[in-house]
Amino acid sequence: MDVAGTALRVDLSGALVWDEQRLLVVSDLHLEKGSSYASRGTLLPPFDTVATLRRLEAVIAHYDPRTVIALGDSFHDRDAHTRLTGDDRACIANLQVGRDWIWITGNHDPAPRGVGGELADEITLGAVTFRHEPTGAPGEIAGHLHPKARVATRARTLERRCFVSDGACAVMPAFGAYAGGLSVRDAAFAKLFPKRAFTAHVLGDTRLHSIAAARCY
């Protein structure tokens, strides 16, 4: 997938890799979403943080990036980082060893503290700017919207997380185990891509499927 003339690799985990920069980007981890819901009386299995960190650990081990950018809403609420277990904190600390780690602030987690790494509202590298909430600006890579696409095949209808891009800017899927999704047909995407002239890069079981927006519903 190219954004603003920059060649980027899409991983089926939902991570984005910039090989030239040895950079790995993930968005919307929503760690401790289960405990957040439990505190309000909605009981979910309390395994989302462990599951998300294990997937993150695997993709980092595979690519061995020099820098990791977590593109906002890494934690489900402003106090979620305080509910991490000791093992989860140790896992995050181990993932940060020997590399730069940047937490982009999101609307759910404006200022996570005590979890290592650096905080930034956004960061620009070359022609690409990484921020949480998308504006549609050229060269932008953002998260926040959790895009998903529904596609009909001969055998069945599939609904999967996806990257959305028109080549000028892109929106990343949520990486978190409990993060939901927003259909690429939603009006929020129409505001970013007025002519719907974008491609949904759908995360399949074994490969990426690049599908024109008109074929998604």
Automatic annotation (TrEMBL):
Iron keyword on record: no
Provide this UniProt record's keywords sorted from A to Z.
Endonuclease, Hydrolase, Ligase, Nuclease
Q: Where is the Calcineurin-like phosphoesterase domain?
A: 22-116
The UniProt record lists the keyword tRNA-binding = no
Top-level taxon of origin? Bacteria
| EC number, UniProt record | 3.1.-.-
- Enzyme category, top tier: hydrolase
A single GO molecular function term of this UniProt record: ligase activity
Q: Which NCBIfam families match?
A: P_estr_lig_assc (TIGR04123)
Quote the protein name from its UniProt record.
Answer: Ligase-associated DNA damage response endonuclease PdeM
Q: What is the source species?
A: Bradyrhizobium aeschynomenes
Q: What is the lineage of its organism?
A: Bacteria, Pseudomonadati, Pseudomonadota, Alphaproteobacteria, Hyphomicrobiales
